[in-house]
Amino acid sequence: MIDFDVSLTTPMALRARVRAQSGWLGLLGHSGVGKSTLLRALAGLDPAAGALRLDGGAVNPAALARRVSLVAQTPALIDHWTVARHLRRVARHHQSAGLAGDLIRELGIDGLRALSPPQLSGGQRRRVALALALLRQPRLLLLDEPFSALDDDSRHRLYPGLQALTRRLGCDVVLVAHQIEDIARLCDQVAILEPGGVTYCGALQPGLRQYQGQASPCSVLLGEALPAEAEAGLLPVALGERTLWVRTPRRPPAGTPVRLLVHADDVALGAAELDGVSLMNQLPARITALTPQDSGVLVECLCERQSIQARITARSQARLGLRAGGRVVLLFKASAVSLLTEF
Amino acid sequence: MPWRFEMGRALWLPLLLLVALWFTPTVQARDPEPLRIACASNFYPTLKRLVVLFKEEHPDLSLDLISGASGQLYQQIRHGAPYHLFLSADAGYPAALYRDNFSAEPRTYALGRLALWDPRGLGVDGERQYTVAIANPATAPYGRAAEAVIGRYRDQQPALRWRTVIAANVSQATQLVDGGNADLGLVALSLVQDRRGEYRLVPERWHRPLVQQAVVVGTGHRQAEAFMAFLLSERAARLIHAAGYALPGDPHALAE
Amino acid sequence: MPWLSSGDAQALLLTVKLAAVTTAILVTLCLPLAWLLVRRDPRGRGLIQSLVMLPLVLPPTVLGYYLLVAFSPAHPPGSFLARLFDQQLAFSFTGILIGSLIYSLPFAFRPLEAALQQSGPALDEAGRVLGFPGGYRFLFIVIPGIRPALVSAALLCFAHTLGEFGVVLMIGGNIPGETRVLSVALFEHVEQMNYQGANRLALTMMAIAVVTVLLSQWSGRHDRF
User: Is the pLDDT of residue B1 over 60?
Assistant: First the structure.
């Protein structure tokens, strides 16, 4: 269980109440709303009032600080210690020497042992700080934008390893990430932080839908992999009765649950299915809501009991005469769909 | 508490040195406790020679000699300075100590003489301005005597242009002249009689007599009385006389 | 023929001992004190800083005079101190040690406080993030983190105490082995026109000063962690 109720007065007034399942919780919110501040308070670095419950029971702030690890955006390391010394001393202090080897390997920091923090790049610092945070064997791990300094390749390499590590350690994670894709990939639940407090705490898909703050709204879909096609790079995914086509080099075994991401700006709407076009995905759906935005209209649709968002121009909406309850066909290419980590 | 002591090697070494240093005896740890003699500056060189003689009889005794202006030493004794003997340049300070129960009865050990020292042969000339170094009249008996003497010189030669320079004690006054920072010095005879250059004995009647008295201070030291006896003995008397002092009851006046 | 007479060698050892012990005590006391000041930032901070600065601007003879009065066993605090140390403080090593502690305090305190102010909080927070408790953080993370300032403060304090004259003279007298420090011994040699002794002592003190400066340069350059 991730269960806390924290009140802050400085630097901003904030009351954050969260109850969520164990696992990964994504924390969404605009810049400046207080995500980092909240994480710091949870880690016991800044004074805050309130209660944090671990394993169901309330814990005092001192005990708390020992069970909560934070990896900040610019992680705090000790400049006059080498990486090796950091690892050695933290492992010794938290009696987790056995864990160190795995962490070093998983996070790829073996070659950095002899270096000290001023000599590390941003991404390297991040990985070292992650290893150290996990070496503390925390019950709750707080990650503040851990992927922002990493290139796509490193990021993708890190995801499965991180999830496996936290699962193995039995530790819950609160993740603050800029890219919705990161949240979608790793989290099953999200909480939305707005000025003053938490306005949503629950499942991933509805949360993402509610989170209007994105410049680029997207939808997360859950499906099941089907036997791979002969054509390389094309993966069929079962979405209820329908088939969705995804361009990806990965070939998960048939039956594997997969998570997919599609941006609303990549989804077009049509009155009926089209012939003679290269679009692989044409899904009939029903409109559940229409929301005018600054740039166009956000159309929420339901297909096979999953919600998909499309963003079109107001002009097109008028032309097609779309309204809530009406039937449409969702049109998008196979390449518009990303395969997030299969789980 | 799973702390391990992770002090670098660097810390152990200075710590060890420090502990060793603290326990190093800097005071000569010999039995008995050293005999401390506080002595007026004028008599210090003489005292050193006397101590050499005394140690012939007492080879195991260690002595610490402290010098300064009589008034300064007197004040220190009143403030509890750990001296066992006090050799003053006058009779006033020992009398005060005796009166206030700081010491035993004073004994005269020497009679001092003032000399005008002129190492560079400048002469006592009314024309030119000279600096004359004297001990501090506030704390040194020789300084008070010198002050009176300057008055007499001025009576004799009203045109005398002397500028007085005051030193902490009579030894320092001598040093000022020796080093060239003062031209002339009105100082103890014993300090200059073996040095280069000319000196003139100052007439005794020009100042109050420099009756130098010694006392055993406080509860004292086992050997304090022994040294006092030695100081007043014949052997010592010969040395003191040769050093430029007259002796109590001594019919021999030093040559004018 | 030894370079220094036995009396002067004794003075040298005594002076080094005084400087070393003063430095050790001051550094040990000032580190936690300065850290407290930096962490808590109490309202009286300015006052404490001014008090610490005081010996810097106070003439040594004034300090010596007040100490002499304070040490007098005729009344407190002297009477209490005399009982505590089981000896009279004026004219004793303990007395000049106390004098040195006050006299050299600003030289130890200020560089330490400045360094802790600058680097301390960041180091402390990093230690917290890594899960170390407060005492451990102070001893093994913050203090090693300010090592250059630590060495500099220690050397400064040491060198300053070595040269002490006015205060020692006022409260120490000139007791060989107890309070006759190098500077007093030198003064005495000159007074008694023992120029050879004076020269040798002066050269020795110069050599120590030069070595101290070189050490502080070397330490500043070889700042490896």
Answer: no
